[in-house]
What we know:
Blueprint: E1 2-11, E2 14-24, E3 29-33, H1 40-47, E4 55-60, E5 63-64, H2 70-76, E6 78-80, H3 93-98, H4 108-122, H5 137-150, E7 155-159, H6 167-182, E8 186-190, H7 194-200, E9 203-208, E10 211-216, H8 218-222, H9 225-232
Parallel strand pairs: 3-8, 3-9, 6-7, 7-8
Antiparallel strand pairs: 1-2, 1-4, 4-5, 9-10
Helix pairs in contact: 4-5
Amino acid sequence: MLMIRNLHKRFGGLHALENVSLVLESRKIWSLIGPNGAGKTTLFNLITGTLPADSGKIEFMGADITDMKPHEICRKGIARTYQQKNLFPNLSVFDNVVAGMLKESMEEQRRKERVYEILEFLGLEEKEKEIVSSLPPLDSKLVELGRALATTPKLILLDELVGGLVPTEIEKICQIVETLRDRGYTIFQIGHEIRPIMRTSDWIFVLDEGCKIAEGSPEEIRDNKDVHSVYLE
């Protein structure tokens, strides 16, 4: 589904990403871990067109998307959430989710039905009229996920979706992510909370100082000495 070849990105003299290559297949949960500053969010920004790559190639569903604009990449079927809250704070839950559908024409009734389907799936159906700025952290994250789902994506990038949540809230997010995979979505997630990453992932990539240092199953990553030396200890 997604193929990244020899991706490079520099900020001045800093190598944010250096010769990174990844391959993602469909209908799985893929995870990206590593210490702060490893280049994880930079990689997401390159995939979604928020930043241009210095060199390398990104292919999605067989098409080269390396130099596409963010809205073009979204139309191709890639959506994302953000580590920092990125919602319309003065709009309602409903309006934030429906914003994800504005890239395509749709009958108003079908648009509403689709929003209600998403809100029900996320457990937000009773909060549709609440203003987003008044929501607790979990609900805010769910609204952002809902807006991503509203774009009808094939691949969803989740940047620290469980960050700052308590264990019961993390459990809910894990269940939702696993259900999305079971429904045919492909998930690519960044996480610092290692337990939910190990639980949900089919495959894990590890970055350190802009370079991929390991990839493998959760069990292989857990036992990898190089990963322990830079991240897990």
